[in-house]
Each structure stands twice: as C-alpha cells, then as structure tokens.
Amino acid sequence: MEFETVIGLEVHVELSTKSKIYCTCSTEFGAEENTHICPVCTAFPGTLPALNKQVVEYCIKAGLALDCKINRYSRQDRKHYFYPDLPKAFQTSQFDLPLCYDGFVDLRVPEGDPLDGKANKPSYTKRVGITRIHIEEDAGKLIHEAGVTRLDCNRCGIPLIEIVTEPDFRTAGEVYAFLNHLRAVLIYSDVSNCRMEEGSMRCDVNLSLRPSADAPFGTRTETKNIASLSATVRAIEYERNRQRKVLQKGGTITQNTLRWDDERGENYAMRSKEDAQDYFYFPEPDIMPIVVDDEWLNSIRASLPELPHVRRNRYVGELGLPEYDADFLVGDKVISDLFDECVTLGSAPKSISNWLMSDVARLCNDTGTGFDQLRFGAKGLTDLISLVEGGTISRSAGSKVLESMFTPDERRSPEELVKALGLAQVSDESTILEMCKTAIASNEKAVADYRGGKEKALTSLVGQVMKASRGKANPAVVNKLMKELLAEQ
Ligand SMILES: [Zn+2]
C-alpha cells in the first residue's frame, strides 16, 4: 500500500537587529556566557519590557516579501511553559493576532533527490501557502558539559519571527526548495543572516501520511529544531519511511514531538505533543497592542529590495542570461550585487557571469575567501574583463592577473599587474609572422598533414606558436597568419 506524504513547516528565524526584542542588550553571537544580559531579559521581578520597533518592521518586511496580508491591529501574548532556559516561565509571542497572515510562495522545484548535487534538472512550479508570521522572543541556552549543566542567558530575548506554512508540501525536495527560497528572500530583505550553523534559522517539520490525496490528514508528528537544509531532507525521508512501515503493518502513529539526530541518522521521541490549550495563552498586559497605519506600512513596503525571484527573471528576460547562470548569481546576494554593478559599469552580462562562475568562484574556494571579502570590487573585475576582451591580454593571462588580485595585500590595478607580470598580449603581425614561419619550418609533418586535408593539424601548429610566445601571442592573429602562410604554396 502506498501513501501520500503531507508536510507543513514552522521555521524560526533570528532577526538581525542590533539589540534584543524587549531590552537594549546586544544580540551579538558568540559572546562570553551571560555577558549580554540585564534585569529585563533575565526576568527580574518588577522589570518591564519595551518592544523594539525594528522587530515589528522586520517581521512586516518578511511578510510583504512573502505576499502576506498585514494585521493593522495585533497584539502580543504570553505562552506559558516551564523549562530551565526560560527565566520568565512564559514566552512572549503572538497567538490569535499575528502580524502577518495568508501569504504564499511560488516555488520552482527541481525533480528528484535534492541532495544528489546534479545541476540543470527539470523542474515544476508549486504554490505553498504561508499561514502566518509572528514575532516572539528566543529562550536561553543550556550547555551540558562534563556532568554539569550551565545556563547561558545571552540568547534570552533575541528577536525571532516564526513562519508557519500550510501543509502543502508532498516531498522533501519541495521543502528543500522552499527553505532555500525563504533563506534568499530574508537575506535579500536584510531581515536575517539566516546562518543555520549559528542557529539563526531552525526548522520544525510536521509530517503525516494518508492513503490517497483526497483522504483526511493522518496523525502527524513534529520533528523539532532541525539545524541545516540537508539534515531537514534526511529527517523527512527517515520519518516518512518510519510512518509508512508502521501503517503498512496495520499500526497507528502516535502524535509525538521528535528530535532528529543527524549523526546517527534517526529520530527519537521527546514528549507527547501538546495542544495550544496546554500553554494557557493570554494577552501580554505589559505591552501595548501594535497598530500599523498606512504611512508606516508604506514606508516599510518602500524599503523592500528587488527580491531574488524577480531578479532572476530580469537576468533571464532582460539580460539574456541562461537560467543556470541566473540561478548561480541570485543564489548569493553579494555575488549578485557585484554582477549588477559590473553590468552598470558596462561589461557584457554573459562575460561577467562566466568570470564569476568559473575563475572567481574557484579562487574564492581555493583561498577560503568569502564573496563578501573580495577587495577588487566591480571596478577591478570590469577592468580585467575589458583588458581581455580588448585583446590586451589573453583569456589565460586574465586568469593569472585575477589570481594575483586574490593575493593578500595586492592593491595594484589589473592594468598595473599586466605590466608587472609581463603578460601583455602580442598582436603585432610582423612579430607573429616570424614565429609562424619558424613553427612551419620545424614541423614538416604537421604542415604536410594540414595540406593533405587534416585540418586538425592547424591546432598543433598554432599551439607551437603560443608555446614559443609563452602564451602572449594573440591566438586570433596567429590563426589568421598561419592559415595564410599554409595556403601560399
Ligand atoms: Zn537584556
């Protein structure tokens, strides 16, 4: 018996505000334990929270980027539960009046296994509904070490948004495509850095099976706090197979909260699932309701940047880039911004994307340089491209210049580097003519082959000249003169 998989997500994203949601403590990641705390975020009696306005703006920005409606009147609520990392014993969140609701995302989903590393796979489009997005505070962190547990409150009060989707996903590939899309949208909007390795983005997966697409939903489990995109895919595959085996044997699924252990490749039950009523939600009496007027909403809307899917369509539709190039560029905002600057400076779009996808990406990888750490900028790259396309240096010499531009402390321009490295291309016909004559004189066999109809022999003769010139001869001129010489007799 086969089943349809039904998946919904709850994604927690830390916002990139400088200070926490209800106090002025810093949100810096990785600080010494309990150094970014105060009486408010450690819940001393008698303290009062003051809502950080930027948290509301970032949440609305995320909502607009995901085509949500915005609640003009919303409120914060207390969600009660006891856990040692939550000094207040309640989390300030939003219950029945979230800031954003009823949005959607149109995804492009590549077919097959999302982790097989294959590019250029056929894809289909899929609309996924966003149920709601609300603001809330993060809890602290428990550190278990050498038989001792310590509490670090630095994370208490870090602002979060929770994005809840409709149960619209049917495969791990769709979830993977969504999380990638969401990450890109939030990074482009400057709402979050979405660094999963720092816990800035965490995913809960609700999953159930049903015998057919028109059957009612089955009992679901919730796998909590998955910390990477690939782990999310593995956790989904595992839980789907586990539920399928249980159901095929005629068993029933228990509504549990699960934890995914990515190293062992299996999940285990943490606790039985609680319902909303277990949290005794009630309106937060210490914070005024949030009222969003037209002026405020319009100013937030005006601050939205060009979103990645819009940018992708522009690259393909207006700049004529292949879809593969557009996906590569849009996949990283820094590289995509650099590309746009180079286009503005006048380089041909396809040339820029070729350089970025090949040499720049390779050198970044080899030297451990992030795209955001490139010192030469759009000006350096367009200057280099002009030197190659204008015939001053060969393409391979261009690669050497770029390599030098990656060395630490190198401040010289591409033009200065061409001089310093002696890479200027030789296009002078009389010089090249002499070199061609020498090559013809010393390669009788290749000459005879070419004249006998083997056109490929030309490549080897041209290669001799390139070698003799140490790569500096202009290949187009060499080709032209070599053909003329060979046709002479
Ligand atoms: Zn504080």
State the oligomer.
single chain
Major sheet attributes = 9 strands, mixed
Helix content: 25-40%
Rounded to an integer in angstroms, the radius of gyration calculated over CA atoms is: 30 Å
From the N-terminal CA to the C-terminal CA, the straight-line distance is 78 Å
User: How many structural domains in the coordinates?
Assistant: 3
Shape: elongated
Task: Report the count of strand segments.
Answer: 16
**Low-confidence parts:** none
Question: Given the structure, what is the number of helices?
Answer: 15
Average pLDDT, all residues: 93
Structural class: alpha+beta
Strand fraction? 15-25%
Ions, cofactors, ligands: which are bound? zinc ion
Kindly report the spatial arrangement of strands forming the biggest sheet: 2-6-7-10-1-11-12-13-14
Explained architecture:
The structure is a single chain. It is built from 15 helices and 16 strands. The strands form four sheets. The protein has a nine-stranded mixed β-sheet with strand order 2-6-7-10-1-11-12-13-14. It folds into three domains: 292 residues, no CATH class; 116 residues, no CATH class; 59 residues, Arc Repressor Mutant, subunit A, CATH 1.10.10. By secondary structure, the chain is α+β, with helices and mostly antiparallel strands. Bound molecules: zinc ion. The site of zinc ion has 8 residues, from loops.
